[in-house]
Specification:
Elements lengths: L1 H10 L15 E4 L12 H12 L4 E4 L1 H7 L8 E4 L3 H7 L3 E4 L5 E6 L2 E7 L24 H7 L7 E4 L4 E4 L3 H7 L1 E2 L5 H7 L2 H13 L2 E2 L1 H4 L2 H4 L8 H12 L4 H11 L7 H8 L5 H15 L6 H22 L4 H17 L6 H17 L6 H6 L4 H13 L5 H11 L3 H13 L7 H15 L12 H4 L1
Parallel strand pairs: 3-6, 9-10
Antiparallel strand pairs: 1-8, 2-3, 2-7, 4-5, 5-6, 7-8
Helix pairs in contact: 8-11, 8-12, 14-15, 15-16, 15-17, 16-17, 17-19, 19-20, 20-21
């Protein structure tokens, strides 16, 4: 009762924070009248809501899932908001776990689908923040009205109950969706300071949805852009991945540039804007990624980040080789150097780093088309990813098209045809090429005569070179 009374009083005061954005009663719509089709809601999200409601709790689909349903798009995932605590949610679902420190949520699993369940957040008058205003702890639970005021944009503060077909709208999100307007709830500068990642979301929403940013929401972005440096690198990676896999990656990057948000995320992103003519490889990779996403084909984040970081890796690799370092060790050193520098800006997930390293370390092996090397490489578990990366390099003019065509023919050939392809590659090899391979063979012979333990190794194998 006290909380409700305070909320009513504070809601009448024109404060700059979320408290001033409280509305006593939301607008209510029938989901079906707004164009939501129940068949577009995932079975997992529906079952999550039903289970929570049968246990006496509120349960609403919220955020991007509702927004996309209203726009006639197919949501990638569904989030559920509830008045149940994380512990109560966890007790209702056998396959679930509580995660997070800054804001505890529950991941509920249905087969391979994951539903993120969050408890309604309270408005905190004295939340724990850093010196820049970023909220550090957000585990105080409140009402649905408070939770709506705590959300970032009006179009993300819509609540949909798939059981009763009701949509609740606290901040005119339905109106803004119709106007295709992106508007912050509360004072934009304060809300950006609470969570600077919201500035990256603006770039993603405007590029993906074609929305216009409300002038008051846009105004403080350029001034507050440096706050992104204070965001934990792992969280920055998650948001950057969403941006790059939105199906509108190039448009997103243009929005980042327009708002002054592109510096420091990835070295390649800076280079795309500073020297467009030198970035055809990265631009080509982003175009191919967009095409795959729009065609609803799978994409590999590891492959994508390998393309975006290839330019600095390649530059350091070529320089080391020119200075006399053997090709494979030079590449391994270049990879270590770039990944170490990148880790301080954007913490790429470890499993993606492993994919990136394998794709990169396969590249010099594609240029070895003699002996048994091609036979071993085509059986590599990551051959397809490495081959696709090679084709991008050829298309960007980094390597002759002939190399890509040769590997296309080789992987589809029978044994006799493969032998002929290898013989043809040997016959057409330019004079002086492959000297690095001869040096490695001589070194291997010395190791063999000396009885060293690396006898018989293929020194082009990235497992040995790394």
């Amino acid at each position: 009762m006290i909380r409700k009374l305070i909320g009513r009083l504070m809601g009448q005061v024109g404060t700059k924070g979320p408290r001033g954005a409280l509305r006593r009663k939301p607008r209510q719509y029938r989901g079906s009248e707004l164009g939501i089709r129940l068949e577009d809601v995932s079975e997992a999200a529906l079952r999550t809501c039903e289970t929570l409601q049968k246990a006496g709790h509120q349960a609403w689909i919220v955020g991007g899932g509702v927004r996309d349903l209203l726009l006639g798009l197919k949501p990638k995932d569904f989030d559920v908001a509830t008045d149940a605590s994380p512990e109560q949610v966890r007790a209702l679902f056998r396959r679930s776990r509580i995660i997070g420190r800054r804001f505890r949520i529950v991941h509920v699993m249905f087969g391979r689908e994951q539903i993120e369940v969050s408890t309604f957040r309270a408005i905190q008058e004295a939340a724990e923040t850093d010196e820049h205003g970023r909220v550090l702890s957000d585990n105080v639970w409140g009402s649905q009205a408070e939770d709506a005021a705590r959300r970032d944009f009006t179009i993300n503060a819509l609540y949909y109950d798939p059981v009763s077909d009701i949509v609740l709208d606290y901040h005119d999100g339905v109106r803004d969706l119709k106007r295709r307007s992106l508007r912050m709830i509360g004072d934009p500068a304060t809300r950006f300071r609470e969570d600077p990642v919201r500035m990256l979301r603006i770039a993603r929403f405007t590029a993906k949805l074609g929305f216009e940013v409300e002038p008051a929401t846009r105004k403080p972005i350029r001034e507050l852009a440096p706050l992104l440096r204070n965001v934990p690198s792992a969280r920055l990676f998650d948001e950057t991945l969403k941006l790059l896999t939105s199906g509108h990656a190039l448009a997103c990057l243009n929005e980042l540039r327009r708002e002054g948000l592109h510096h420091g995320l990835l070295p390649m992103l800076d280079r795309i804007f500073e020297k467009p003519g030198d970035s055809s490889f990265a631009v080509l990779a982003l175009q191919r990624t967009d095409e795959r996403v729009r065609a609803e084909r799978t994409i590999s984040p590891g492959f994508l980040f390998a393309t975006l970081l290839w330019e600095p890796v390649s530059t350091r690799w070529r320089k080391a080789v020119a200075d006399g370092t053997p090709a494979v060790p030079a590449l391994a050193d270049a990879i270590d150097s770039v990944l170490h520098a990148q880790g301080s800006q954007l913490a790429i997930t470890r499993r993606y780093l492993a994919d990136m390293r394998e794709i990169w370390m396969m590249q010099p092996r594609f240029e070895r088309r003699s002996g048994r090397a091609p036979w071993g490489l085509v059986e590599h578990m990551r051959f397809r990813a490495g081959y696709d990366f090679l084709l991008l390099r050829c298309e960007a003019g980094e390597l002759p098209d002939e190399i890509g065509r040769w590997w296309t023919d080789f992987q589809g050939a029978d044994n006799e045809q493969r032998q002929a392809l290898i013989a043809s590659a040997q016959a057409h090899r330019p004079p002086g090429s492959g000297s690095g391979s001869r040096k490695r063979r001589r070194r291997s012979s010395r190791n063999q005569s000396a009885g060293r333990p690396d006898e018989g190794r293929d020194l082009s194998d990235p497992g040995h070179a790394a």
